[in-house]
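User: Here's a chain of 152 residues. Predict its fold as tokens.
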Amino acid sequence: MLNKDYSEVMKDMMNAFPVDTSAMDDAFKTTAALSEKLSGVALEAAGKSAELSSHWAQDTLAKVNEIAKAKAEPADYAKAMSDFASASAEVAAENMSAFAEIAKKVQMDTVELMISAGKDMGQEASAAMQKAASDVTAATKPAAAKKATRAK
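Assistant: Prediction complete.
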């Protein structure tokens, strides 16, 4: 008799608290959307960095080509090397600054996305908790009434 009552109580309890997976579905969709946006930020930065690196390499190779050309005087080799070193230092500073700007943009975009996602997730969690609370309240009323009927 006890086992039957226990299993009936458990069955009633499980039926009274149905599982709503829509909150999990929404959380998955939100997470997937955030991942897509973050991937977009990372891929854009990688593309800009690759473009900058390629341009830098091409410029360097063009300057090395000037050094490799035969010179009439030995002093011309020294001047070509000095010009190459000066130009390389200048270009390196410019390119490092450009890389820093790319990194800064990635940081700003990421912070904006994370703040936006935090707000969205907070609102979704609040709505899910309110729905769960109302579902539990609605589910406990019939269970309490059934228990009161059994007690009589």
